[in-house]
Amino acid sequence: MADFLSEWYDWIKALHIISVIAWMAGMLYLPRLYVYHAEAEVGSELSETLKIMERRLLRAIINPAMMAAFILGLCMVFTPGVIDFGAYWIWIKLFCAFFGLGGMHSYLSRWRKDFEADRNTRSAGFYRKVNEIPTVLMIIIVIMVIVRPF
Predict the structure, then answer these.
(1) Considering its fold, how many domains does the chain have in total?
(2) pTM, to two decimals
(3) What digits encode the pLDDT tens for the residues 62-111?
(4) C-alpha–C-alpha distance, residues 98 and 102, integer Å
């Protein structure tokens, strides 16, 4: 397995980056849809259209992209000689990816179910603020991976 990971490392890394880009695109767009949905009348044509858009975005793009990013990321972590686990940057990156973005993903999924059932109680302003969380996490992750300050 180690030989396979080493031989295919560049492809694994490329596919990981592609997956992360797709995941982040969805994680940035879905809260924006929630802003519009929170402002829409329950049962309106706009509300029903947004439900479809949110469900498709989550199921067709965000969920598969997250799973691919995690699986490919783990493949990179287990590639011999790639990661120095004594460095702090990798732990900060992994924490932000798994608990930060993964947790945010979980909340976005839960909130979609609230919208689907017409149970949303949060304001458009709440979702505008939430929309910034994936951006901040992305910035931290990119700095950890590229600059490796710790």
Answers:
(1) 1
(2) 0.91
(3) 999 999 999 999 999 999 998 999 999 999 999 999 999 999 999 999 99
(4) 5
